[in-house]
Amino acid sequence: MHLPAGYTAHHQAPDVEDYCRLRHICGLTPRSVIAAEAGLPNTLFAVIIRHAGETIGMGRIVGDGALFLHIVDIAVDPDHQGQGLGKVVMATLMAHIEATALAEVHVSLMADGEAHRLYAQFGFEPVAPRSLGMAVWINKQ
Fold it and tell me: Is 115 contained in some domain?
């Protein structure tokens, strides 16, 4: 996929400051600096999008690297949305998975709000009623 003029994609995880900022301005659940500092180095693969030197988009893959992968942190600064940048992030992540998968791999994600429309373009579909996604939040702060 092509990026609009002035945007560049980089295969790296965002730094802690950009990560926390993008999650905040995109309405994702905030993460602490302590948690981001501990978690980001465990990223299997990531892409960030920059514009005028600023990180304005991101997406990451976490998991065990072979059997289970989870796509997380898909975020594009609201001031830059509507230009296909989320599609570029997803296409980059999916291309990496397709190029590096050893055999069968279960790829999952959580779709908030209308994001399911983007993810459906990459083959993702709801798993209910066969499966039910579940979560628990542990907050030690």
Answer: yes
Enumerate residues 6+ apart whose C-beta is below 8 A from 50: 7, 8, 9, 10, 56
Give per-residue pLDDT as tens, 97-136: 999 999 999 999 999 888 999 999 999 999 988 998 888 9
Residue 132 inside a domain? The answer is no
Provide the 8-state DSSP code for 101: -
Range of the domain at 85: 7-120
Q: In 3-state terms, what secondary structure has residue 97?
A: helix
CATH number at residue 69: 3.40.630.30
Q: Strand 54-63 vs strand 68-76: parallel, antiparallel, or unpaired?
A: antiparallel
In a domain, 136, yes or no: no
Those residues with Cβ within 8 angstroms of residue 26's Cβ, 6 or more apart along the chain or in another chain? 75, 76, 77, 78
d(CA 8, CA 24): 22
Determine, yes or no, domain membership for 114: yes
pLDDT digits (tens, 9 = 90+) for 50-100: 999 999 999 999 999 999 999 999 999 999 999 999 999 999 999 999 999
